[in-house]
Amino acid sequence: MEPVEEFTKVESIFVRKRNALMVCGQFTPIFTDYYIHLMENQLRHKEQLDTIIKDKLAFLTLHLVARPWAETIAWTVNLRAPRVNFFVTGSSVEENITGHLFTENVKESDRNILYSQTLVKGAEGRKSTVELDDNDPAKWVETYYVQSEQRPARAFRLPDENFVLIAAQPDCDLEWLEALTTEDVEKIMVEEQTKVLETRKFRFHCGCAPDRFLPALAQYKDNKEELFQGDPEVEITCPRCGSKHVITPDML
Predict the structure, then answer these.
(1) What is the C-alpha separation between 87 and 100, in angstroms, rounded?
(2) Which pairing describes strands 71-79 and 20-26: parallel, antiparallel, or unpaired?
(3) Which fold has domain 8-204?
(4) This model's pTM is above 0.70
(5) Which GO terms describe its biological process (predicted)?
(6) Fold for domain 210-251?
(7) Which of 104, 110, 178, 243 could be 238's S-S partner, Cβ–Cβ 3.0 to 4.6 Å?
């Protein structure tokens, strides 16, 4: 059995004559760390929901590479049926991706919605809201690009946990882009003129730790009983990744 790489390598490739940017990666390393994370935190999701959040982790990673450097992006999708919130976020600076899903206390909506937030240090953040027509994350990405990025894009799942995002550039061959099939995408590197622009690496990592939650709990420093209510510790769940952290009175 071959060892799994620690990082997912993501390539940014320009497709000449088609004027399109293809971003692709093999996501076994990220998915492996995602499952280790679930096991360590005793989390288990239904297969359908598990597949969706893995798709979102992959497609957001590709989107980060397709975007300018130094951005941190979060995507939240609120689905009507099943009633669930999917949250994924990643940073081009840290080259990491993480996510979590919520099935309890989810506000009921009359439609499926994707909320996007983009942050750049020292600049004003950007938010957008996109209404979704189905439950397919690949279609979510394509809808998001048309409505928020103001350019068409195609998203594909290939065998062996490979994912591809192809986004239009100025003077793109839109007829070619719209007609692409999974089989066509698998042959692009052979049949089209391409140039690798850059290669980057991402990993599944949140960076949360007990110390990061302490500032929010500082108000209880002089009234610990209100927080602990006689218990020797409290458990805090990271809203970004679902990790569980134990806080004890002496930590305050």
Answers:
(1) 5
(2) unpaired
(3) Hsp33 domain (3.55.30)
(4) yes
(5) protein folding
(6) CBS domain Like (3.90.1280)
(7) 243
Bridge-partner residues for 100, per DSSP?
87
**Number of other residues whose CB lies within 10 A of the CB of residue 23:** 25
Closest CA to 120 of 80, 72, 165, 81: 72
Q: Is 213 helix (H, G, I), strand (E, B) or coil?
A: helix
Contact 29, 80 (CB under 8 A): no
Q: Sign (positive/negative) of CA torsion 160, 68, 172, 175?
A: positive
Distance CA 88, CA 100 (A): 7
**Where in the chain are the domains?**
8-204, 210-251
What angle, rounded to 10 degrees, do the helices at 47-66 and 137-144 form?
A: 30
What tokens does 35 get?
């499952």
Q: Which candidate, 58, 36, 57, 38, places its Cα nearest to that of 46? A: 38
